[in-house]
Amino acid sequence: xxxxxxxxxxxxxxxxxxxxxxxxxxxxxxxxxxxxxxxxxxxxxxxxxxxxxxxxxxxxxxxxxxxxxxxxxxxxxxxxxxxxxxxxxxxxxxxxxxxxxxxxxxxxxxxxxx
Length: 114
Known about the structure:
- By secondary structure, the protein is mainly α.
- The chain has a domain at 34-108.
- It contains three helices and no strands.
- The longest helix has 30 residues, at 38-67.
- The protein is flat and about 55 Å long.
- The two termini are 40 Å apart.
């Protein structure tokens, strides 16, 4: 693909182009970069992704427990691990003074289901 070449069906691009003006009011005109907030923003992003993965693993573990594919020892180990991970996440959120890890993805909605 060459630089600035757009791939896709014309119909798909037309639908996107028609919806694009609706996104403009929600998007900032400029990116606000503050060197003092870079570390906090990076920590918030990393913790948000870890929280998303933790929730996915927790849901999968619950499905496996309900399906009966885990032994009692495995259920205990998974429960303990998830509990410790949640405690560590809470500790890191307090340390970096982060209230919520639910990142607003603009037109896509929020990252986490809370």
